[in-house]
Amino acid sequence: MVDIVMTPQQITPEWLTLALRENGILTGGRVVSAESRLFGTGKLGDNARISLTYEGDAGQAPTNLVAKLPASDERARMMAGAQGAYYNEVKFYQQLAGKTSMRTPYIYAGEIAEDKASYFLLMEDMAPSEPGDQLKGESIGRAEIAVKEAAKLHAAFWGDDSLAERDSVLYQMGDAAEFGGGLMTECWPGFLERYGESLSLEQREFGDKYIANHTQWVQRFSGARTLVHSDYRSENMLFSAEGTVCIIDWQTPTYSSGLADISYFLGGSLTLELRRAEEKRLVELYRVALEKEGVTLSQQECWEQYREFTMHGMMLTVLGSMFSEREERSDKMFTIMAQRHLQHCVDLEAADFL
Asked: Contact at 8 Å (CB) between 321 and 195?
């Protein structure tokens, strides 16, 4: 097994040659140079774009790839390791990505250490595709692409109860639900202190009720479950000029309702006005796409799950903001997410499910 690297500086031509050969990507020749540069604003990890040159016959080996590495910040790295974020992502690509037609990056090589805090992934460089921008909000065209792509993932794992037994897939029941409820209760006062002034009284009152009932809510769903991305938002999507999308950042795959992804995406990645105007049509577009993939869900059941899982966005916004280092852009993003997701819950009367 090739050594696990932690920084771009450790990605040498010799190391790349071994990694690509070991995984059958490089069958001849060798890497003679590798230039890297960090990019992106990931909180729990670092991304580097690597340009490679070869000596000899490199066949179909890539001339550009992306290395996904642990966070350089030790606190963030240890937190991600303890949460299983790195482990979950490596195992998703190794064990689950090939079972769905959803577009994900091709993985050239990847390993995870026993401590789950050290890992690497060498993946397909999707440039010039670019991520969405939640601050601005996504277009209706991109929203249509995203909801149809989600149907490919959900249909592939619909009703697959074996997901509940995988240690790389989150399943919020029993002790996990109790632990999550404790975290939400602990984080809520700090969340209000940081973002409360930007929220309406109605939004804060809903948040109070949700926090008090979080543990019961995450365990109440009794419908068919599937594999959900869980952080299905536009900044975890790479959109191409040709109208396709590639889904990245698989650190929190979860066994839940497929509508968790749809509600989270529409509630957080669209502006309030566009979401209100288009959500019924987009939810139906998702339902029809599921049907084309062989999964039948009634219009009423689909819409009711969509309403209920508006609260998935509430959960991720509170926890995500409280466990991230504060920066100007991230503060703006979490303020917008808080406003959008809480208003989504209010608009769709999500309190009916508490």
From this structure: yes
